[in-house]
């Protein structure tokens, strides 16, 4: 089936202590968002890329693309007030039956194997959500007390979360609820089973200065292996 990726990039850079939105902060010489787009394009050069940006950031993004001679084909869609609204706007741009990945614009380190795990599982079973195991101990706080919980009963959720278009479009026809923190929660609310697949631990969400330093190191290591 034809593949689409909706890459949601609506950050403000507040936790980065920067006036520049976090998706535009440079990572190894180019804006972070460009690395994210390139990962999908390198995985599948035929994938249809939809970049969802706040209205007041679109002109800056186009300027950055010109400055960095960034020519990977993509469609720009105006975002909404919430992530839910932004994804819904991205879905409007898709007119055909397909497989759709929804990904955070500030996750530039998703690897090829995770993408393959997600797309192949969604194509066969309808849904795919990448996760990885928790290695730290966990405690739950409740009613002014706390207690240990079994970490093997929990996992860390990542993106891209990938779905057949017929499932995702129906899910996003719902009215927004605060519990919709990602696409998995939106789809799950319909009673649809989610298929968990193995993600990659270094697929971090870059939201703080330490995250940026970690991403710099990880990206350097990845580029060294490739070269």
* Average pLDDT, all residues: 95
Major sheet size, sense and barrel closure: 8 strands, mixed
Reading off the top of the CATH hierarchy, the class is best stated as Alpha Beta
Give the CA-CA distance, first to last residue.
32 Å
Helix/strand/pairing category: alpha/beta
Global shape: globular
Order of helices and strands: EEEHEHEHEHEEEEEHHEH
CATH architecture: Alpha-Beta Complex
Count the E strands.
Answer: 12
The rounded Rg comes to 18 Å
Pathway: Isoprenoid biosynthesis; isopentenyl diphosphate biosynthesis via DXP pathway; isopentenyl diphosphate from 1-deoxy-D-xylulose 5-phosphate: step 2/6
Family: Belongs to the IspD/TarI cytidylyltransferase family. IspD subfamily.
Pfam family, one: IspD
Catalytic activity: 2-C-methyl-D-erythritol 4-phosphate + CTP + H(+) = 4-CDP-2-C-methyl-D-erythritol + diphosphate
Main attributes of the structure:
227 residues, alpha/beta, Spore Coat Polysaccharide Biosynthesis Protein SpsA, Chain A, eight-stranded mixed β-sheet, two-stranded antiparallel sheet, IspD/TarI_cytidylyltransf_bact, IspD, isoprene biosynthesis
